[in-house]
Amino acid sequence: MSTQKPTRTEISSLGEFGLIDRFAKHFESKNPSTLKGISDDAAVFRFSESGPATVVSTDLLVEGIHFDLMYHPMRHLGYKAVVVNLSDIYAMNAVPRQITFSMALSSKVSVEAVDELMEGVKAACEEYKVDLIGGDTTSSLRGVVLSVTAIGEAMPEKIVYRDGAKVGDLVCITGNLGAAYLGLQILEREKQLYLSNPDIQPVLDEATTLVGAQLKPEARKDIVAALARVELVPTSMIDISDGLASELYHICKQSGVGALIEESGVPIHPDAQLKALDFKLDPITCALSGGEDYELLFTINPKDVDKVKYLPDIYIAGEIVPKEDGLKLNTKGGNLHEIPAQGWKHFKP
Amino acid sequence: MSTQKPTRTEISSLGEFGLIDRFAKHFESKNPSTLKGISDDAAVFRFSESGPATVVSTDLLVEGIHFDLMYHPMRHLGYKAVVVNLSDIYAMNAVPRQITFSMALSSKVSVEAVDELMEGVKAACEEYKVDLIGGDTTSSLRGVVLSVTAIGEAMPEKIVYRDGAKVGDLVCITGNLGAAYLGLQILEREKQLYLSNPDIQPVLDEATTLVGAQLKPEARKDIVAALARVELVPTSMIDISDGLASELYHICKQSGVGALIEESGVPIHPDAQLKALDFKLDPITCALSGGEDYELLFTINPKDVDKVKYLPDIYIAGEIVPKEDGLKLNTKGGNLHEIPAQGWKHFKP
Description:
Two copies of one chain form a homodimer. Chain A has two domains: 13-158, CATH 3.30.1330.10; 170-338, Phosphoribosyl-aminoimidazole Synthetase, Chain A, domain 2 (Alpha-Beta Complex), CATH 3.90.650. In chain A, helix 2 (74-90) packs parallel to helix 3 and helix 4 crosses helix 8 (270-278). Chain A has helices at residues 15-24, 74-90, 111-128, 179-196, 208-215, 221-229, 244-255, 270-278, 283-289, 305-309, and strands at 34-36, 43-45, 53-62, 95-105, 131-134, 137-139, 145-154, 170-174, 236-240, 257-262, 295-300, 314-322, 327-330, 336-338. By secondary structure, chain A is an alpha+beta fold. Helix content of chain A is 32%, strand content 23%. In chain A, strands 1, 2, 3, 4, 5, 6 and 7 form a seven-stranded mixed sheet that branches. Chain A has a seven-stranded mixed sheet with strand order 9-11-8-12-10-13-14, with helices on both faces. In chain A, 55% of the residues are buried. Chain A has ten helices and 14 strands. At the A-B interface, helix 1, strand 3, strand 4, helix 3 and strand 5 of A face helix 1, strand 3, strand 4, helix 3 and strand 5 of B.
C-alpha cells in the first residue's frame, strides 16, 4: 500500500543467469558442512567427518513455461519432473537416492489427473531406485507448478564440478542431441493444427522417438555407472539441459578456459537430423541451442582417453583450449565459428 | 488431445491430507539410507554409517494462496518463506544448516522487488545461520511461486518424530498462539478498506506485534537449543503451522493416542486475546484453528517435567490420554469439548 514509485528494472533485461549472478555474490556459505553452494548442477554438503557427501539439486517446473498440458500427459510429466532433477545429480558424478516432490494445483486438475502424475513419479522412482521422502501439496489460483528436489550421494573426491576443465582436456558428449528439441517442434506444430481444427487428429506415430525424448526423457545413470566401472573421474561435468552451447559456456566460464568443438564430433540423433530438414532447421543449431537432451557433457584428461574409448555412447567432440581462444565450432565445411553463449531464454522478452 | 472423458473427482473433495494419504501408501522407501519418508515435518536420511543424519523439509508458497503481495512486503516474504521451512527442521529437534530457494516470477515483478525478496532471504539466513546453497529461477505466466527446501542435521537418536507420544505424557506448547492469525485479520480488514477507498491509509501501528507475527514470523531455534541444554528429548514434536487443533490431531493420530487439553493452559498471545474481541472471535478458537504461529507443540515423559519447568516460554497445556478418550478441550468453564480435526483448508471450496 506504498505510494512511492521506485525505480523499475525488468527481469527480462537481466535473464535468468544475470538474476542469479546478481544475488549469488551476496550469499557466501559460512557453515563448514557446506562444500559447494550456488554455481553448479547441484550443491554439496557433508555433516559427518568422513564417508559420502550429500548432493542436492532443485527445479521448479511451471505450466505454460516448462510444459504444456495440452500435449504433455500427466504421467509423462511426473516422470520427466523427477528425471530432469536426477540428471543434475548424475552430472555431479553422484548417485541419486531420494527426492521430494511438491505440487501446486489449480481447481482444473482432477484427482484422477493427480493419480496419473504420481504414477509417473512412481515409475521414475522405480526406474532410478530413488525414494520419494517428502513434498508439499497446495492449490494454485492458476496453472500447475511442480517443484522437485533430488538428493544423492558420492565420496567427496569423486564429485565432479563445472570448474575443473584444463587446457588439453578432451570434451566428451553422451548420446544423441537434438531429439527432444525436434520432438517439441512436432508437438507444437500438431497443437497449432489441432487448435485451428479440433477434428484433425495428431500424427505422432512417425516421430515416436523424438516426441518421446521431449515428453519422457531419461537421465544417464548408465554413464555414471560406466565411469565408476572404469575408474574414470572426469575433470568437469554438466548435464545438457539448456543446449550444448549454453552448457559449454558454463564449463568454460567456470573453468577459465575456451573450447574447440568439431561439428563432425557432435552426436546428433539420426531422427533429429532428418526431422530438422523438415522444419528447415540446421541440425547442429538444434544440438547447440535446443536443450532438454539430459545427456552429459564432460571433460577428461587426455591420459584417460583409452578408458572412454570402449564405453558405448560417449563421443569425443573437441578439446579444451586457452581462454583467449574462446568457444569455437569447426564446421564440417572447415570454417571456424564463434559459439554464442546461449542461455536459457525463459526470461527473454 | 484425447477425446475420451474420464471420471472426474475434485481435489477439494479430498483436502490436502486426503490427497497426500492417497498416494503416500504407494511410495514405500526402499533405500537403506532413508530413515523416515513422508509423514512427518521433515524426512530423514543418512549416507554414512555413523554421525549425524540429514533432515530435509520442503514447502511451496503460492501468491494468492499463502501470501498477498498487496500487504506482504517482499523483504518480509523472503524472510518468512525461509523461516517457515526452518521451523519444520526445528520440529524434528534438528539444527538447520542449508536451504535452497526457488522462485517463479511473473513479468509484474521487477528486479528491485527480487532484490528486496532476496534481502529478506539473506536476513533469515544470517539470523538462523544457514547457507543458501542452491535454487532455481524461472518466469511464471501469473503470480509468484516460491519453493524452499531446508536441510538440517541431528544425531538419529535425538530426532523427534510425531509418533512417539505415550499415554501419560505431558503436552507442551511454546510461546503465544493466535498472534499471526489476528495479524492476518487486521491486514485483510485494512486491505478491504483500502480497496474501497485508496485514499485511506492503513492503521497498523497499534497492532505491530500481531501484524509482525503474520508477516515476519520467527522459528523457535531457542527452544531446540534449550532442550539440548537440559538434555531433554521430547517423545513427539511438531511445529504449529496449521493451528493447534490440526497439529494435535497429527500427533495423536500418528502416536495412536488421545489428548486432554486445558483451555487455561493454552498460551494465547495477550494482544491476540484483546484483538480477538474486536473481531468478535473466541481467542481459544483463534489458537486452535488460526495457524501460522510457528511455535512448537511437543510431548514429554512426566519424569522430565522438572527439566522444562524452569525453561522460559514453555507451557504445559494438557496430557496424553488413551486413544478411546479422543481429543478433548477442558474449557475454563469446566466443560469438555471435542476438538475438531481441523486441517489446512486451502483445498476446501
